[in-house]
Amino acid sequence: MKSTSRRSFLRGVGGSALALPSLESLAAAPVKVPAQRLAFFYVPIGVVRRSFFPGEAAAKIPKFTSSQKELAKKDLPTGLHPLELTPTMQPLAGLKKKITLITGLDRTFQHGTDVHAQCASCFLSSAPPHTIKTSALPLDRTFDHIVGDAIGAQTPFRTLELSCNSHRDNLESIHFDNISWYGTDHVAPSIRDPRKAYHRLFGTKEIKAYRNITDLVLKDAHSMQRTLGSSDRDKFDEYFDSIRTIEEQIDKLEKMKGELAQVTLEEPTAAHLPRGAYIRLMGDLMVTALQTGLTNVASFMVGPERWNTPFLYEGLFDKPRSHHGMSHNQNKFVEDLEKLDQFHMEQFAYLASRMDGILEADGSTLLDNTIFTYGSGLGDGATHQYNNLPIIVAGSGGGNLATGSHLACPDGTPLANLWLTQAQALGLQRNRFADSAATLKELQKS
């Protein structure tokens, strides 16, 4: 059978810039080891600890404090433990063997700034306090860009930054609304509009072009049926069905925006857009970019820190609500906050499951070859604590990280120890990152 290269195939679809997943039938060379990927799913304002962390179900609901506070950790022995799925983690039940809960990781709070300012902006930086002389924040080049320099150099997008903050009322500085930074005071702007993300990723400039692009490619693919194996035909169908679904979701969301714009609302129009649909749509774009090799490194920010502008969490509340506002009164809103934490976990589980359903050329899944980290810069939204952050890692980066357990770290373990561990798992020759002290050896496979 004559082999056909991906480049030749793309030339044959009328010059459209739609990326393709790797296909065995189109490969001119033997199947190679799948690329390793890195992705982050950032949730703002921490979590309700009693529902997220094992062993804290009976803990008292904390009172609000406006300053950073460090709470005592539970007496759980350090090391690996069986993974207990707490109420907040229940959406991950189907992925239990491919996730790791990590507790006990801390970030050092640098005094002199607002307690929320460092949460998102320094989550992937973790520079040692007071080492950045040009900023009041311990903010340096973030971990996603360090890794992107190593494993993203050959991809169209060395890194990809996405955000689900659709609001335009900039109540806070950019530090509250970005986790990815090229360097101190040099933000890596995130894409927030699904249509713009679609345009940027797939290179389509005209509406008619991208509305018809999948039909054009499928028509060309149909003529190649005799050269495609059965598994590749299935992969084509799955891939282009997902692209069509993304296009339909974008259309629905934009139609809703137009309708809302005609109505007088107390809150901004964006507050009334269905939150889950928006997050999943942006997430689908991220997964597709990772699947097709458009990027190997992506950061995904669910929402901004502290902004009190509300969002509509469909299925949870009957009107838009402020996550930050509720977090400051856990005694009154604890059950609503627990629902919101599980809602965010459902979105993370949806994306991780999507990755796990995408087969790579060697039979592994996209999730198997990705390190996909869920996390927040606060351990609790009421206490504003920077210790014992909520961290979950899905995937193993090509089998280089252990999964399926709960790793309890010793008191004072830097969050940057996790980033250093991930860097080494992805092949980076580094002995230190930011304020790291060592790797998390329990996660490393020899």
Description:
- The protein is built from eleven helices and ten strands.
- It has helices at residues 6-11, 49-52, 117-121, 143-151, 194-202, 207-222, 230-261, 275-292, 323-327, 330-356, 415-425; strands spanning 37-42, 79-82, 99-106, 160-163, 181-183, 186-187, 297-301, 370-375, 391-394, 405-414.
- It has an eight-stranded mixed beta sheet with strand order 2-10-3-9-8-1-7-4, sandwiched between helices.
- Helix 6 runs antiparallel to helix 7, helix 7 (230-261) packs antiparallel against helix 8 and helix 8 packs parallel to helix 10.
- The longest helix is centred in the middle third of the chain and has 32 residues, at 230-261.
- The chain is globular, with a radius of gyration of 22 Å.
- The two termini are 40 Å apart.
Quick overview:
With 446 residues, the protein is α/β, with parallel strands linked by helices. The protein has helices spanning 6-11, 49-52, 117-121, 143-151, 194-202, 207-222, 230-261, 275-292, 323-327, 330-356, 415-425, and strands spanning 37-42, 79-82, 99-106, 160-163, 181-183, 186-187, 297-301, 370-375, 391-394, 405-414.
Number of strands: 10
CATH topology of the largest domain: Alkaline Phosphatase, subunit A
Strand content: 5-15%
The CATH superfamily of the largest domain is identified as: Alkaline Phosphatase, subunit A
Average pLDDT score = 85
Q: What's the shape? A: globular
Biggest β-sheet strands, sense, barrel: 8 strands, mixed
Strand numbers in spatial order across the main sheet: 2-10-3-9-8-1-7-4
The top-level CATH class of the largest domain is Alpha Beta
Order of helices and strands: HEHEEHHEEEHHHHEHHEEEH
Count the DSSP helices: 11
End-to-end distance: 40 Å
